[in-house]
């Protein structure tokens, strides 16, 4: 039985003072979101989770950004292999303890070795793609074309114009960005991987172009119409803690 979802908070909730499992920075993010009926999303979530909803709707996110210097434990982040463009398709979930999180349906990245490690070691749906992130003043262009494992050629081209910083994000904007964990299935078991980072610096953004088939390639109905939310963030440093099972017991 699912407990009442935890409150949505723009600041990270207090957690155990443990060393990080992973460190990284997410930079120059474009957040695009479409509203979906929960029943379209529910079959794609890990066991023990259900779609997280706001006013009866859940959301599908297409998030493009630059991953920067992924590192293990307290070691310095890796400058080349740990730095690359990434675009992911993500869903919004809540587990039996009421913990809100995200579920990744696909994570396209441009470095083959990190993709192979994430797929084999963590069972994350990373895919190797040809990608770029270009910035000209307030214009940002994110491109992606999938190489392996497929469907080969699936991709996206997103162009946004960064707008003014939001003094106070709306309830929907907090719902879509203030996420402090990830739900995933590993070796047949559902796990929750907590993360922490500073409050998002969010900007309004204008979507100038969006050509994509990544959402459909991730097993979802293709989006209908423009996204209901378009945001930009210069980014945040991120720390991932040790994973926990849905019941809250940390894994060895």
Automatic annotation (TrEMBL):
> Which spans are transmembrane here?
none
- List, alphabetically, the InterPro entries matched: ADC_dom_sf, DUF2071
Biological source species = Streptomyces physcomitrii
The UniProt entry, under SUPFAM superfamilies, shows: Acetoacetate decarboxylase-like
The signal peptide, as residue positions, is: none
- Protein name according to UniProt: DUF2071 domain-containing protein
Name the Pfam families on file. DUF2071
């Amino acid at each position: 039985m699912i407990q009442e979802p935890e409150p949505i908070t723009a600041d990270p909730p207090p957690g155990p003072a443990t060393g990080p499992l992973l460190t990284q920075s997410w930079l120059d993010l474009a957040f695009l979101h479409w509203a979906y009926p929960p029943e379209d999303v529910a079959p794609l979530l890990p066991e023990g989770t259900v779609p997280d909803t706001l006013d009866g709707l859940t959301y599908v996110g297409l998030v493009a950004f630059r991953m920067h210097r992924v590192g293990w434990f307290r070691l310095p982040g890796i400058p080349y292999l740990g730095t690359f463009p990434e675009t992911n398709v993500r869903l919004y979930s809540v587990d039996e303890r009421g913990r809100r999180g995200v579920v990744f349906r696909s994570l396209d990245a441009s470095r083959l070795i990190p993709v192979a490690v994430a797929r084999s070691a963590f069972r994350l749906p990373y895919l190797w793609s040809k990608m770029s992130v270009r910035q000209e003043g307030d214009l940002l262009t994110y491109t992606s074309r999938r190489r392996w494992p497929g469907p080969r050629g699936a991709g996206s081209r997103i162009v946004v114009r960064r707008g003014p910083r939001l003094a106070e994000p709306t309830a929907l904007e907090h719902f879509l960005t203030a996420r402090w964990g990830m739900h995933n299935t590993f070796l047949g078991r559902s796990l929750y991987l907590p993360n922490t980072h500073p409050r998002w610096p969010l900007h309004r953004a204008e979507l100038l172009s969006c050509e994509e088939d990544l959402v459909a390639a991730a097993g979802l109905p293709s989006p209908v119409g423009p996204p209901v939310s378009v945001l930009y963030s210069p980014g945040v440093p991120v720390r991932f803690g040790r994973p926990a099972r849905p019941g809250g017991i940390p894994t060895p």
